[in-house]
Amino acid sequence: MKLARRQFLHLSAGAAALPVVSRIAKAQAYPSRPVTIVVPYPPGGLIDAIARILAESMRVSLAQTVVIENIGGANGSIGVGRVARASPDGYTLSIGTGDQFVVNGAIYPLQYDVVKDFTPVALLASSSALIVTRTAVPASDLKELIAWLKANHGQVAQGHNGTGGAQHLCGIQLQNAVGAKWPFVPYRGAAQALQDVMAGQIDLMCAAPAASLALVRSGRLRAYAVTAKVRLATAPDIPTVDEAGLPGLYSSVWSGLFAPKGTPEDVIAKLNSAIVSALADPSVRQRIADVGMERAAPNQQTPEALGALQKAEIEKWWPIIKAANIKGE
């Protein structure tokens, strides 16, 4: 009787431990099949380029195929929504920007929560903006530009590449700082908007340095400040907004990698390690720089840093978006 009872207890304990052992073994075996990174834009754009650059290096670190899947539409909410509904096993991830993981939560009636339904993996890269105007604007520095905008806001027009996007929000923030309003002109892309600034059809933009810096250098645009705490390494002669007269007017495009909520911590750690390894590669950093972004600093490449940035961006931008009554198109 005692022997039978002892055997029963051993068997029961072993059975109870099986789920734990199974979960540990599953995490240790990850990834055992291809990993998919959903890019919530069509192929060929900036975030698609970042995803493909990192995927090449991640394939080596993970010893597994990393597939890029492009699912565009509704400012990226369709692709991100698919990841929110995916199994939390580390095999379906989303790369995205503040547009998807901050702005969309304020302008769309989403079927998911941009915070609660995701687990941050790593902050990848970012880029600030340049405040640029047509060359005929009679202002030689940012303080003079502010005065000109106040005096002429009824005739001013500002371009951007999409309602609720970083360029649009930068413009609203600029209006709030100046204390005057002027109309925005939305374009399908930044290139068309920049062309109209150069042609004098519109007056100013918050433009990506990758697209606008060469035009500034050639004298076709005038740059007043970079919307960041530090100057651009590629344009050390252009002052920051703090230096130029609008302290705190920070705006950037950032990219991060997210997994569905509930993804095991060990899997998140392995994915983060693969990203950190990729971003440490000089050739990867150069390719990211070539598309106009800068890799996140090493101490910012953590899940915690990405989560903190997302929270801070929501606290900053949601009140601005709601006050401006911006709605998704």
Instruction: Name the strands of the widest sheet in spatial order.
Output: 2-1-3-10-4-11
Outline the biggest β-sheet. 6 strands, mixed
Mean model confidence by pLDDT: 92
* Terminal Cα span: 74 Å
How much of the sequence lies in strands comes to 15-25%
**Secondary structural class:** alpha/beta
* Low-confidence runs of at least 5 consecutive residues: none
- The amount of helix comes to 40-55%
Radius of gyration: 23 Å
Give the number of DSSP strands.
11
- Sum up the overall morphology in one term: globular
Helix count equals: 12
Q: Could you spell the SSE succession in H and E letters?
A: HEHEHEHEEHEHEHEHEHEHHEH
Q: How is this structure best summarized?
A:
This protein has twelve helices and eleven strands. The protein has helices at residues 2-29, 46-62, 77-84, 98-107, 142-152, 166-178, 190-198, 209-217, 241-244, 265-279, 282-290, 303-323; strands at 35-39, 66-70, 92-97, 118-128, 130-133, 158-160, 184-186, 204-207, 222-226, 252-260, 294-295. Helix 2 (46-62) crosses helix 10 (265-279) and helix 4 runs parallel beside helix 12 (303-323).
Structure in words:
It is a single chain. Helix 2 packs across helix 10. By secondary structure, this protein is of the alpha/beta class. It has helices at residues 2-29, 46-62, 77-84, 98-107, 142-152, 166-178, 190-198, 209-217, 241-244, 265-279, 282-290, 303-323, and strands at 35-39, 66-70, 92-97, 118-128, 130-133, 158-160, 184-186, 204-207, 222-226, 252-260, 294-295. The protein is globular. The chain starts with a helix and ends in a 6-residue tail after the last helix. The longest helix is centred in the N-terminal third of the chain and has 28 residues, at 2-29.
